[in-house]
Design brief:
Helices cover 25% and strands 21% of the residues. It has 478 residues and is of the alpha+beta class.
Length: 478
């Protein structure tokens, strides 16, 4: 990295540590899956933590749990629309759930737990789970109070730590091993995250509470959260979190595909607070905008520690920040700033354009201009055989499309996400029109040979000449 960029990154860490009054603060930047910068500041001169020092990462743990659940989905062992009770049949009998309308109970799904739209309570019944031993809550029934459903499932975003504990129990039920064992075997091992652990392993930072009105501090106790572990238990290092950031952006063939990670980064729940309209939630991932730049990742906090990891897929850059203080530094903003400093000062180079090695000639029949009524669009065929539809002028609906085995294409984004694009061919094999979710696209505006429902009225009879219509022969109408 350029010296000026490194200096700006280090200054952001230094300001964050000083203004946040935290014993130590570490930060790192990831580019194309590789850590390219690391920096740290400490209250002890000459003893700043290195990239192998563990910090507790709190709710970043939820991203690991979400990956385990999505692996089950991709293997066909469950669907996100499945009621949780299908896999954890004891859940409908939990205290309080019996009093909830049956339709609401049936609506509590795996996907709603991942997106915090299940309506479950934010926290467990007292005492506060983050500051007490997990053995106080040995059973799933101990995680939810007498009225665990605070909102009708699917109705609104409501962050739920017990919801992710239930997802951890779901993983255990489907895999037949404890959550931590499944995590180590299926995620940590394949990704080489050897310093991401259930309990701290030296070297590890101690957690502290800094007095809000005086420059003194005291140590925070470390608790094993037990059944709540899938919501916030893990410890990790800057080096491992950098690898995790790279994975969240690109996936890994032995863990989760890039397509599934992209699905997880897609907004699935609205902003949780009108005061923060730039935030949202995907499938186990927090989403935000920072200076107009979309970021995905997660924040985390547990007594004594704060942590955040963000990735910008468009920039190919990720960043993280971790501190050993219960409150003080805004590590979410710090990590986002580290990412922005790098992406703005040293923007990445686009991959070189290369032509397709070979392309089905039938695909070229689809390329070029198409009209939805009178609205002109372009359809571009990329080197991989995918399609991109875009309006030629003004605002309008566009999308990328993925090829399917049956000769159709599936929309990947926007209004057409999940919709089917189907070329309709004439008797001679040429493409007559495109059917996109019942919308008809034609080569000329209002092609009279296409099955256009409605459309313009007939051309007034002006005597001898071309037959009435709205095609290229008799356009325009006078």
């Amino acid at each position: 990295m350029l010296p000026g960029t490194r200096r700006a990154l280090l200054r952001r860490i230094a300001v964050g540590q000083a203004e946040g009054r935290t014993p130590s603060l570490v930060g790192a930047v990831v580019r194309d899956g590789r850590m390219v910068w690391f920096g740290s500041r400490s209250m002890i001169d000459g003893h700043a933590p290195d990239a192998d020092t563990q910090y507790r990462i709190g709710s970043i743990t939820k991203t690991f749990t979400a990956v385990l659940v999505m692996r089950l989905r991709d293997e066909g062992l469950l669907e996100l629309s499945d009621p949780l009770a299908r896999h954890l049949p004891e859940v409908p009998g939990l205290p309080g759930l019996a009093a909830v309308p049956d339709t609401a109970t049936r609506g509590l799904t795996v996907g709603q737990l991942l997106t915090h739209t299940s309506g479950l309570a934010s926290e467990t019944p007292p005492p506060w789970w983050e500051r007490t031993p997990g053995e106080l809550r040995p059973e799933l029934t101990d995680l939810l109070g007498p009225t665990p459903v605070k909102h009708p499932p699917g109705r609104r975003y409501h962050y739920s730590n017990p919801g992710f504990a239930l997802l951890g129990a779901l993983v255990e039920r489907k895999r037949g091993v404890p959550w931590a064992e499944a995590l180590a075997a299926e995620v940590l091992g394949p990704l080489g995250l050897t310093r991401t652990t259930y309990l701290p392993q030296a070297p590890a930072a101690g957690g502290f509470a800094v007095h809000p009105w005086a420059d003194v501090m005291r140590p925070e106790a470390v608790q094993d959260t037990g059944r709540m572990a899938p919501a916030g238990q893990l410890w990790s290092t800057a080096q491992d979190m950098a690898r995790w950031a790279g994975f969240l952006a690109a996936g890994h063939p032995d863990v989760l595909s890039a397509a599934t990670l992209a699905e997880m980064r897609t907004p699935a729940a609205p902003p949780p607070d009108a005061a923060d309209p730039d935030s949202g939630y995907g499938l186990g991932l927090q989403l935000t905008l920072h200076g107009g730049r979309p970021l995905a990742g997660h924040t985390g906090s547990l007594p004594g520690f704060l942590a955040t990891v963000w990735v910008s897929v468009a920039d190919g850059v990720g960043a993280l920040a971790m501190a050993n203080s219960t409150s003080g530094p805004s590590v979410g903003a710090i990590a986002a700033d580290l990412l922005a400093i790098t992406a703005d000062a040293e923007p990445g180079l686009p991959a070189p354009w290369r032509p397709a090695g070979s392309l089905d000639p039938a695909l070229l029949d689809l390329a070029g201009p198409w009209y939805w009524g009178t609205h002109a669009h372009s359809l571009h065929v990329d080197a991989g055989g995918g399609l991109t539809l875009a309006p030629l002028s003004g605002r309008g609906r566009g999308a990328r499309f993925r090829a399917e085995a049956d000769g159709t294409w599936t929309g990947l984004e926007g209004y057409y996400a999940g919709e089917t694009l189907r070329p309709v061919r004439r008797a001679d094999g040429s493409v007559g029109h495109l059917d996109l979710g019942s919308f008809v696209f034609t080569r000329v505006p209002y092609d009279p040979s296409a099955p256009l429902p409605g459309g313009p009225g007939p051309v007034p009879d002006s005597g001898p000449g071309p037959a009435p219509g709205f095609g290229p022969v008799n356009w325009p109408v006078r």
